[in-house]
Amino acid sequence: MTTPRTPTFEPSTNIAELRESATIAVSARAKAMRAAGRPVIDLGAGEPDFPTPRYVIDAAHSALDAGATRYTQVEGIAPLREVIAARASMLWRGTSSPIGPDEVVVTAGTKQALFNACFALFSEGHEVLVPTPGWTSYYEMLALARAVPVAVYGTRSAQLKITPSDLLAASTSRTRGLILNSPTNPTGAVYSPSELAEIVALAEERDWWIVSDEIYREIAYDSPARSLLEIVRRRERLVVVDGVAKSYAMTGWRIGWAIAPRPVARAMAALQSHTTSNAATLSQHAALAALSDTANARATIDGMVAEFKRRRDAALEILRAANADVIEPCGAFYLYVRAGTPGAKDPEPGVTFARRLLDEFEVAVVPGSAFRSPEWIRVSYAAPAEQVLEGVRRIVAAGIC
Questions:
Q1: What does the pLDDT average to over 278-298?
Q2: Are 218 and 264 in contact (CB under 8 A)?
Q3: Is the pLDDT of residue 1 over 60?
Q4: DSSP assignment of 199-230, as one string?
Q5: 22-51+297-397: which CATH architecture?
């Protein structure tokens, strides 16, 4: 009698090169260490530490009591798409008609909106420019779409933001578009209106698509972060993605959306019809309440941003006193700190520092290699203020550069 062979798993070529999300991996390890009894300070998480606003939770209860438990249209319930379209139309400064609800697709988080956009717009061999350091999932989504992500690096003097010259130097005849994110994850940098206008002008000249990730737009400190809807004059090659996760402390509700030209919106909805179908019905009603109650929304966002700013300022004071090299964030809730200089002995000093910081000082941060910049670490201040400040003090004690 032969012994049965142990089955082996060989991943398909679709995912063979796929890498786990580094930000999620860091958070999972920190949680595991906490569960084992170690008092880890988690400064790796990319979600607000505030509770979902009470008015949103109350609205969700009411929707549940009213029977909001069935399928909806794949692209989302009409009232939610209408309020998203109306809000976007208030930003729109271009020459075409106002944005309609048929140009909105509601998704299971902004991540799905980005994924849908990459699959709908880009094909095998297309090159897509990604300002770098950039959010880890951009590169993987593009690779899954069989496109080629092209990292475009900004200079330290420009707060690691990219310029039209940087984009032009990285482009080829195969360039199809670019992904833009402002405020930026992981640096917290915010592009000014003039910087955005220059990038848009180049994209229009080259006939590139722009996918604008605006999930952090409401979290800005020194001046407002601008939507590309306020910058572009035409929307034929623009997809704007956003959601309620960050600004409304609704990460677990999983509601995002894409605003796109009608043919693109239809294609994204068709794709979604074969993957997840509609976003969770109850969550859509919660998002509708979050966006519709403008008075409560404004108070919620303003209070959260004010607290983030206090944490940012206090953390920056500690880092500056230690002469750390840190990008001063004007938005989002991250500090990007240089951890060393890559070399033959240590090509990824950010990984080395983050590992030692967690093992010896019990602070979790995300190494910059997750964002294609191995000499940096990302520190989230979306945690209670006392934990943020203690964590930053430990980062300094660990010998940050």
A1: 97
A2: no
A3: no
A4: HHHHHHHHT-EEEEE-TTTT-BSSSPPPPGGG
A5: Alpha-Beta Complex (3.90)
Distance CA 32, CA 63 (A): 35
Helix (H, G, I), strand (E, B) or coil at 370: helix
pLDDT band, residue 39 (cuts 50/70/90): confident
Q: From residue 381, how far is each of 38, 43, 184, 186 by CA, in Å?
A: 20, 6, 15, 12
AA letter at 313: D
CA torsion angle 207 213 219 224 (round to 10): 10
Overall average pLDDT of the 49-58 stretch: 97
What's the pLDDT score for residue 35? 85
**End-to-end CA, the chain:** 63
pLDDT exceeds 70 at position 22: no
**Structural domain boundaries of the chain?**
22-51+297-397, 70-294
Cα separations in angstroms, 2 against 5, 7, 8, 377: 9, 15, 18, 52
DSSP 294-340: HHHHHHHHHHHHHHHHHHHHHHHHHHHHTT--EE--SBTTEEEEE--
Report the distance separating Cα 238 and Cα 170, nearest Å.
20
Give the pLDDT confidence of 160-194 residue by residue, as tens digits: 999 999 999 999 999 999 999 999 999 999 999 99
